[in-house]
Amino acid sequence: MNFLRQSTALLRLNLAGLVARSGSVLTILIGVSCTVGVLVSMLAMGTGAHRQALGDVRDDIAIVVSRGSSDLDSSVPRDEAAAVADLPGIAVGSDGKPLIGYQSVVIMEGHRRGTGARVFFPLIGTSPTVTAMRPEIHFTEGRMFAPGLHELVVSNPCVRTFSGFELGAERDVRGVGWTVVGHFDQGNSMNCLVLADVETLMTAFGRNVFTEVSVELKSPRDFDAFRTALEANPAVKLDARRERDQVEGRFKGLKALLNFAAYFVGAIMAVGATLGAVNSLYSIVDARRRELATLRAIGFGSGAIVVATLVESMLLALPGALLGAALAWLFFHGMAVSPFGFTFRLDVTPQLAEIGIAWALVMGLIGGLLPALRAARMPVTTALRAT
Amino acid sequence: MKYLPLVWSGIWRKPGRTILIFLQVSVAFALFGVLQGLKTGVEHAVDAARADLLIVHSRLSLIMEGLPISLLGPIRSVPGVRVAIPVELFGGYYQKPEQGILSVAVPPDKDWTTAFTFTIAPRHLAAFAKSRTAALVLEATAKKYGWKIGDHIPLVTKVAQKDGSTTWTFDVVGTFTDSDFGGGGDKILMNFGYYDEARVTGRGTVNHINVSVTDPNLAVPVADAIDRISANSSHETKTESIRELAQQQVQQIGDFDFLIRAVVSAVLAALLFAIATMMVQSVRERTSELAVLKTIGFTDRSVFLLILGEALTVCILAAAVGLALATATLPIAARFVTGLSMPKITLAIGLAFAVLVALISAAAPALLAARLRVATALAER
User: Fold this and answer.
1) For A24, which residue in chain B has the nearest alpha carbon?
2) Which residue range(s) make up the domain with B279?
3) B259 CA to chain A: closest CA distance, Å?
4) Residue A90: DSSP 8-state
5) Does this model's pTM top 0.90?
6) By the CB < 8 Å criterion, does B27 face chain A?
């Protein structure tokens, strides 16, 4: 009890004396807030990309791909795709037809507005059922493509980023003019999506295999029965996956890369900021030599001094963490970036702020260790003689 | 120069503090070096990419849409074309699906290597041309799987052969290295003839055609002439040099630049404050010593320069250590991201930043020291 009383008394004394050491306090504050700000902002990229990728994922949608395919190299032949329609558990749309979407992806060329830089992005051939299966698709202008016609519908982020997607614009794909007939939003997605009728697209490209087949199930519970039935069919070599698993799998590499970059840079900056904090705390402790010696002389234990200094150092790091997280939120939350060809918004969440605060406290703890020991070991006689 | 010992003793007045500041500056500049090295390394790699090596690909896509092999004849007759080599790319794996390997099928025509970024020893090249099932393996790939010349390597692919098998077997006859921008993945070179005869689907088409030109200055007109051959047909081509392709790749990761700039500014801002407070602290502690210096004849100016000199010395030395550290680590990182390097200009920029940080952060403390009034300073004692 005595120990605790001593520690709190010391802590109160220490904090009161900090006003006079504004330079050192500022160094810790700015060092920690820069580190936490960078760490949180960089982690926000991973969170933002993750939220974007999984934002519109539904549990009652299953994706069917060719067996063993990693992702884009999946190829589902027509006859096998037709067999999917006979499987159990598939939901039926308002028109009485099963909710199955056939997909075929080709790559198309676009030009960025302003710079004119060329980028390749997927042109997705899809069944007209897509509007029933993806209610988050919401047309802001124009209409859905008509089956059998050379028509494109384009997501609004795409219209904003690339030139030549205005309503009524004609795009040359395989020597044929395809008309843009609709603009849509897809939930909160920032992705560039260009959709066309899958059958028309496959005819134009002379293709006979789909990339994947997506199926809306009556309920998420029907997935196992659906997959079992699919695997039991010897005529097909297909795999069913939950949409969430499929998207997660596709996303794993990017997330690992983003988080690695964030923690790598964050760790190096934390080392720098901790060194700065050690220096500042040393000078704060040095300035207190007489005070500390006096306290030791009147019976304060060295353990209490260590604890008080450590807590003080962690408390000094805390406002820096809050400031850093706040700045990250202020400047970067919701900012759209496209570092790897696809666009997402940075997402500064409370969890990330917690990670930032945890880092700051560890930095404070490590940074305070040596100065705290010096404070506790200060020889009483020399310290009292000091000016 | 004669003040150097004085600067030096000022620096080591409090060794603990100096060492900590030194480490902090080193760490900051190591990070700066790695990040800038990433950026400038990529830029340099783009500039180093060959402008005289053209890739003829489908207007629709870089690799996913093929070209008819019949284009080869007309392309070869375009004036300025040295060689035109059809290239087929297909994925596969060795033993486990995680061990992906790209197969690049090329015909070993005369001078074919001029249209590629590969470096191949002449005897390996000769062995490759001799046998249909021969394969050249990227050096890193061969090392990774312990393949040696004479080994038979089965690769599981998605491409069926006439006998129905999707496993292709190759005889390793040599190794090669690839200087292409971002060309880091595992790959092998195989004989196009073997591939084209054995495959069931897609015969008569190729992924793209590599072209080397007789004179680098001809690259642009040759590219235009090649694209005119198939203009308005159902298989229009787009011909680009690998430098142009590299530039596009870099543009796609454009926002990375902003990120690096933001991190570097945050690091430098934190550094400025740390050094500034430490210097102010140091000047305050030395009030009487500085006053003595002035008493024995040091001018305000020389005291100002003395403090500035201390900051400069520490910052430049620490930055040099940090940048050296970054230079030492980059080759390790380059194993994962090809094209990383530490150009001298980055080192120069880093040192310039170190000078700038030192000058800005030490300006106020140095001014404090210069303005010191001897009488008041000594009276405080």
Assistant:
1) B277
2) 4-47+253-379
3) 9
4) B
5) no
6) yes
